[in-house]
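Severity: low
Component: inverse-folding endpoint
Summary: output formatting inconsistent between runs
Steps to reproduce: submit the following structure tokens with default settings.
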């Protein structure tokens, strides 16, 4: 069984000056990342679409947006520049190498400590 190709699009944010590839198939990206970290796959087939292509700009109704939206709008949901894919899975942390996971855990704990101390200051004021 062949791994289905990841659908990618090259996107440059206005004013950023540096473009990146983003996935239009986030579930496949998640599965590939987990399989890569587990040593099962090293490479995945990809299809790269131009940003203006019919596939990327195809309109479909999006219930969460309450309107017609392009494939790009429905797929570009990253809040972390594509560092990881949000997924409800017990394998969530397997999509990243362990050193990165430890770093994220450290950053998350540091942010929680900072938020906690900020909340303590607000309560005391």
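Observed output (run 2 of 3):
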């Amino acid at each position: 069984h062949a791994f289905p190709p990841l659908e990618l699009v090259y996107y440059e944010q206005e004013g950023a000056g540096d473009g990146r590839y983003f996935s239009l198939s986030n579930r496949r990206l998640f599965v590939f990342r987990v399989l890569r970290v587990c040593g099962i796959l090293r490479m995945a087939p990809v299809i790269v679409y131009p940003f203006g292509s019919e596939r990327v700009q195809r309109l479909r109704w999006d219930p969460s947006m309450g309107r017609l939206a392009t494939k790009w709008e429905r797929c570009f949901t990253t809040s972390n520049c594509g560092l990881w894919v949000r997924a409800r899975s017990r394998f969530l942390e397997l999509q990243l190498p362990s050193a990165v996971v430890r770093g994220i855990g450290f950053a998350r704990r540091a942010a929680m400590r900072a938020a906690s101390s900020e909340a303590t200051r607000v309560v005391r004021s």
